[in-house]
Amino acid sequence: MKISFDLNGKKTCIDVPADRKLVRVLREDLMLTGTKEGCGAGECGACTVLVDGQARLSCLMSAAQIEGRRVTTIEGLTENGRMHPVQEAFIEKGAVQCGFCTPGMVLASVDLLERTPCPSREEIREGLSGNLCRCSGYVKIVDAVEAAGEKMRRGNPK
Amino acid sequence: MEAFLNKTMLEVGYSTPRFDARSKVTGEELFAFDHCPEGLLWAGARRAGLAHGLIRGIDASRAASLPGVYAVLTRKDVPGTNRQGIVRKDQPVLAGTKVRHCGDPVALVLAEDRDVLEKALRLIKVDLEPLACVFDPEEGLRADAPQVHESGNLLHKAVIKVGDAERAFDECDVVIEDSFEVPAQEHAFLETQNGVARQEEDGRISMVVSTQAPFRDRFEIAHALGLDVEAIHVVSPSLGGGFGGKDGATVQCLLALGALRAAGRPVRMVWGREESFTAGYKRHPVRMWFRVGAMRDGMLRSIHCRLLYDTGPYAHLGVEVMALGMEHACGPYRVPNTLVEGRCVYTNNPVSGAMRGFGVCQTSFGIESMMDLLASKLRMDRLDIRLKNALRRGDKNGAGVTLVHSTGIVPCLEALGAHPLWKESGRWKSAAGPHKKRGVGLAAVSNAIGYGRGLPDSAIARVELTGEGKIRIYSGVTDMGQGNSSAFVQMAGEILRQDASRLEIIQPDTDLAHPSGSSSAGRTTYTFGNALIQACEELKEKLLHRASLLLMLDQPSGLVLLPGKVKHLPSDREVPLELLGRIFPQTDRGAVKQFVMPVAQDAAESAKEFKLGFPHVLYSYGAHLAYIEVDELTGKIDVKEYLAATEGGRVINPAGFEQQVHGAIAQGLGYGLMEELLTDRGKILNPNFTNYIIPTSMDIPEITSVCVETEESSGPFGMKGIGEVGMNAPLPVIAGGVEDAVGRRLRRSPLTGARVLAALKDQGESL
After folding, report:
1. What's the confidence (pLDDT) of residue B7?
2. Does A71 share its domain with A91?
3. Interface test mutation site (partner A, options B113, B187, B190, max chain A beta carbons within 10 A)
4. Between B323 and which of B64, B352, B611, B614 could a Cys-Cys bridge form, CB atoms 3.0 to 4.6 Å apart?
């Protein structure tokens, strides 16, 4: 099946089986390996991407479901070499350890801050509860999202 | 002077961002999982699905004839011994005569794509004759028990004996006895076991694999498949978590076996989450019995303890895990008389192996629970009784080792006692809402670092100035996420005075780096770091001497390294590192140095049954405290606050130190509150994240980490490893908090709502 969609700001056409998992399309057909896969069953959040700006699990989506949609992966979050404030905050606040959950965690945070620009720590914890991290105690991730929110509210351009 | 103080410099002691943080937030970091070369074959293992049985036959004909199937391999296709294992080689690459747990692989399929692979695996018919099973280690020791191995079910037994424990009990004012039990825990790293291998034209096997021990893997593969060690090349990129579960062969031998058959095509194997549960290693389930004797003033006199470790069907590191658990069974306390008896038993349960805390977090639950019970019996404060018995430098620990290195449990306990969370705990407890009860739990723990006596704990660091004038470190030890490679870059930056832009680190590659042991045992940064410091010092001398030649100086005095250059301070003249890189040959631009960790010089009379891994001489310490709220209606435990005071010598990177403390606590809280591998006749009932729940951001409280610095004179920049010690405290902390809150002592973990509720309903003796 031919599928057209916007991938990280570029019009993209692919010809894949309609039921091929989006995570495999991204990682194996388009070689965008920044998106990870930790369980294949929608439990860990490592495969999180943005579809029309909203966090979605790419292991639970099929290729057919992205027809005409706008897909943002971690590779598309950096614009002209400039990182998103969430990415910068993850670095500054020590929210990165093994890094395998990081792309999904960053994208889920971007979505969270879009919906809730000024979240409390509780709201951040709730918003990220679908993204598992086995290395950290989540505290620094919450710190990073809090800091990124502040930075974005101050109107810093990306 | 400004240049020295510039914060962009990588210096020891600063919370500089991790060296790998940028590539990880942008998705550029390549894990083994991201290596997907053209033309690859997918490899998959057919698992036994039965805990114990004789293999009567394997019919792979339908699978083999499926279009897209490249090959189906069974035991008869395995050259060599077919036996893998880190110390004891008792685990088959492909089971040929019998299966000993549900996850044993009986066939390996190579296929063109994953759909065909899945189909082919289902089409393989395995004819198994069921055998009687051993699921209970106690029953496994009976004379008439079914035998997991012909050698019998007792993998190992050992005794640590100091003084005369039995006689000392007679002199004690108070003696208490109790039993405890902990289940298997899953590592649950997010990147499952995986790798890709191919046979090169010269016959060598090259492999990119998610492993904690790339150098040792070569020996395991070579032994199992009858290959030369030099014919195996292992590359270990950053790991998506390890925690011990990637120490020892997982996919390695299967990948190499597949590559031998694939005529130069790359072979990729990725364990799915369920396969990772089924075939991967677990934390050992342990049953413990303790008898503790003390004087009226709270001074410990004698401890007798019996430990029973369920190692599953293969040894893996079972003996060494038990050795470390036994070594720590008497806690970070001065106990003049100890008798610790350990047995490690084969069963048909999932395979137990290495996991952060390595046998210690089990016995910490036992001894710390006993300390609480002792305090309660003597009507003493739980902190006071620990402080009174806490080890100080010069004391002998419960294993009979004289502590000649930094010993910081006392300052950890003092930091805890001085903290507002301890001082104000009474007020917090009394403010519980309706149907809530509040309590405070605390624990004192230690964790040895290094391999222990019998196996030289060594690392060899290589560092060089590249042709482009950068400093390149060839790491010999995997970074599984703990941040050791960042620490290495910081150490090199400190000695060679370079900023981040002029430093590079190459993750372990057995063709480029030197054998440096595994990433494990709290020894990774300590051992390799010590070797790296020496190598950097040598390189520094070399660079200064070569620069002095170019500056026509007789002596290198007055020369200093600065970012990108060597500068002659008296004359203000400079030599750019790029120039040194261009002029001098590669053989003159590097340094290679080795370090071997010190070992204990005493305790020679005890535990002679352990040929390696006992005892240790270096330990890190921690004292933890938590505010626990119990819901009387549901039994659910809510951890409201968490405080950890940790001593690991000096701190290389405070942010990195905190990351390790937080992460260990989170895994420990999972272990204490919810994580339990459930099995039925050896089959895992919760082999996925739907049923095996690990902590989410909603389950972990805010954590306060207090760093208690000491100077470890043998450590690189005075540091010791602290990755594991934090794992050992949360379970006893929770159990103590629950008792403080509701007056019930739980002896089985995890402390689920159901168990707490059952304890609350129990009107008689607590569970």
Report:
1. 45
2. no
3. B190
4. B614
Q: What is the percentage of chain B residues whose pLDDT exceeds 90?
A: 95
Do A132 and B482 lie within an 8 Å CB cutoff? no
Q: Rounded distance, CA B350 to CA B236, Å?
A: 26
Residues whose CB is less than 8 angstroms from the CB of residue B559 and which lie 6 or more positions away in sequence, other chains included: B544, B547, B548, B551, B553, B566, B567, B568, B569
Does some domain include residue A106? Answer: yes
Among candidate residues A33, A56, A76, the one where a domain is terminated = A76
Same domain, A19 and A70: yes
Cα A136 to its chain centre, rounded Å, is: 18
Based on the domain organization, do A70 and A97 belong to the same domain?
Answer: no
Shared domain for A117 and A143, answered yes or no, is yes
What pLDDT does A156 receive? 54
Pairwise CB contact (< 8 Å): A97 & B26: no
Question: What pLDDT is recorded for position B732?
Answer: 98
Residue of B190, B667, B700 with shortest CB distance to A101: B190
Task: Flag residues of chain B having pLDDT under 50.
Answer: 1-7, 765-767
In this structure, are A92 and A72 located in the same domain?
Answer: no
**H or E element that contains B292:** strand B286-294
Task: Using an 8 Å CB-CB cutoff, list chain A residues near B697.
Answer: 124-126, 128-129, 131, 133, 138, 141-142
Of B24, B656, B688, the CB nearest to A43: B688
| A107 found inside a domain | yes
Cβ of B27 within 8 Å of Cβ of A134? The answer is no
CATH number at residue A56: 3.10.20.30
Q: Which of A48, A76, A104 finishes a domain?
A: A76
B426: Cβ contacts below 8 Å, ≥ 6 apart: none
* Domain total of chain A: 2
A99–B190 C-beta distance less than 8 A = no
Under the banding of pLDDT at 50, 70 and 90, the label for residue A81 is confident
Query: Is position A158 within any domain?
Result: no
Is there a contact between A38 and B690 if contact means CB atoms under 8 Å apart?
Answer: no
- DSSP three-state, residue B139: helix
Under an 8 A CB cutoff, do B656 and A94 touch? yes
A89 and A72 within one domain: no
Read out DSSP for chain A?
-EEEEEETTEEEEEE--TTSBHHHIIIIIS--TTS--SSSSSSS-TTEEEETTEEEETTS-BGGGGTT-EEE-GGGTSBTTBPPHHHHHHHHTT--SS-SSHHHHHHHHHHHHHH-SS--HHHHHHHTTTS--SSS-SHHHHHHHHHHHHHHHTT---
Nearest CA in chain A to B663: A136
Instruction: Give the tens place of pLDDT for each residue, B652-711.
Output: 999 999 999 999 999 999 999 999 999 999 999 999 999 999 999 999 999 999 999 999
Q: Which two tokens stand for residue B742?
A: 């509701």
Percent of chain B as helix, strand, coil, to the nearest 5: 30, 25, 45
Same domain as A124, residue A68: no
What CATH number is given to the structural domain containing A92?
1.10.150.120
Look at B15 and A94 and tell me if their CB atoms are within 8 Å: yes
Q: Please report where in the chains the tokens 């470390």 appear, as a residue.
A: B324
Q: Find the domain containing A33 and state its range.
A: 2-76
A139 lies in a domain?
Answer: yes
E strand or H helix at B479:
none
**Same domain as A104, residue A65:** no
Q: Give me the sign of the Cα torsion angle B141, B147, B152, B157.
A: negative
Query: By C-alpha distance, which of B97, B100, B98, B95 is closest to B83?
Result: B95
Chain B residues near residue A91 by CB distance under 8 angstroms = 17-18, 21-22, 25
Write the pLDDT tens digit of every residue in B569-610: 999 999 999 999 999 999 999 999 999 999 999 877 888 899
Task: Give the burial class of A117: count Cβ atoms within 10 A of its Cβ; 0-12 exposed, 13-18 middle, 19 or more buried.
Answer: exposed
